[in-house]
Design brief:
Largest sheet: 2 strands, antiparallel
Structural class: mainly alpha
Radius of gyration: 18 Å
Strand content: 5-15%
Number of domains: 1
CATH topology: Arc Repressor Mutant, subunit A
Number of strands: 2
Distance between the termini: 35 Å
Helix content: 40-55%
Shape: elongated
CATH superfamily: Winged helix-like DNA-binding domain superfamily/Winged helix DNA-binding domain
Length: 153
């Protein structure tokens, strides 16, 4: 299983915002901090905003902020909302399935349990948990613009 970059960037954006709750953060700041295309981040922010994870405002005083308290943002929910699908094998989509052994195959059930277990683990964590887990160091301590408050939109 491999998560898309869209989901990866979604989680990175949320972690960044959880460490900068004192102010709106620009896409440029996150882009420069993570070395990610700003255009790509804009699309990810749109997805996060459409699912009420972030608020985004344009203009001079604009920027991105968390729409909820970090303790109210469930990681399993974020992954489910940002990942296009979890049909890890063809037979997970019965409409397009062409597998001939489906009626006797037990693999589908085993893989289904694996996906369920994956989400059971993710559902046990919130954004606040992830921020607390890292200890005393901030994630932004490892980014190039760690201690610079940038106000660019």
């Amino acid at each position: 299983m491999n998560l898309t970059l869209h989901t990866d960037y979604s989680l990175r954006i949320l972690l960044y915002l959880a460490e900068h709750t004192d102010r709106p953060v620009s896409t440029r700041e996150i882009s420069e901090a993570h070395g990610i295309s700003r255009n790509h981040l804009v699309r990810v922010v749109q997805t996060l905003q459409s699912h009420s994870f972030v608020n985004a405002a344009t203009g001079r005083n604009g920027g991105i902020t968390l729409a909820r308290d970090p303790s109210a943002i469930n990681i399993g929910e974020v992954v489910r909302k940002t990942e296009p699908n979890f049909r890890i094998v063809e037979c997970f989509d019965l409409k397009t399935n062409t597998c001939r052994i489906l009626p006797v195959c037990t693999l589908r059930g085993v893989l289904g349990k694996a996906v369920d277990s994956f989400f059971d683990v993710l559902n046990g964590y919130t954004l606040a948990d992830l921020v607390r887990m890292k200890g005393s160091q901030r994630l932004s301590d490892f980014l190039p613009i760690a201690n610079v408050a940038i106000r660019v939109t």
